[in-house]
Amino acid sequence: MATAVEEQDFSDELEEWLGEDPHKTFGEMVDVFEERGFAVAVVLGLSVPALPLPTGGVSHAFELLALVAAVQMVMGRATLWLPQRLRRRELGEALAGRALPYLCRKIRWLESHSRPRGAALFGNRWFLRLLGLIVIVLTVFSAIAPPFSGLDTLPAMGGVIVAMAILLEDLLVLAVGIVIGSGGAALTVTLGAAAARFIKGLF
Fold first, then answer.
1. What is the pTM for the complete model shown?
2. Which of 69 and 20 is assigned the larger pLDDT?
3. Is 161 in contact with 177 (CB distance < 8 Å)?
C-alpha cells in the first residue's frame, strides 16, 4: 500500500531552499514558490524590519519587496512580477544571516499551533485583495517609523503574520497578525504625535 507523503512545513522548506546556496535572489524565490510567491515575498520583505533590533535604512529595500507584492495582490494578479533589478537582488546577510534564522524559529512555533480555519476564504480573490490592502497599510507604517526607533517592528511583524496566515490558511493567525500590526501602527501614530508636540513646544 502506498503511503501519503507528508506535506513539508513552510519553515523547513524555506530553510532547505536557503541552505542550497547562500547567494539566493528574490527572483529565484518567486520561481521556486510560484503561486505562494505573494505571501512569501511579504514574509521575506518584512522580516528585516520585524527584527527586534534597530535596522535603520536597510529595511526600506526589503519593505519595497513587500509593497510590490501587496500592490499586485490588490490588483488581483495570479502570479507575482518583480522588476529585473529587484529579481537580481540577493537576499543578503541582513536577511539570510540574521532575520530568517530568527523568523524561522517563530514560524515553526506558529506552524505547530496552527490549523486550517476558514481555508475557503483564502481561495477567494477578493479576500486576498483585502489582505493585500492590509499588508500595504502595515508596510507603510513600518516604513514611516523613525529610523533606529524600533517602532517599525510591530507593524512589520503584523504583516509577516498576515502573510503566514495566507500560507497556513488560518483565520485565527490572521486575526493575531491584524491585532499586532494595528497596535504597532497606533503606537507609531501616538508616539509620533507626542514627539511632534514636544518639538513644537521647544519653539
1. 0.84
2. 69
3. yes
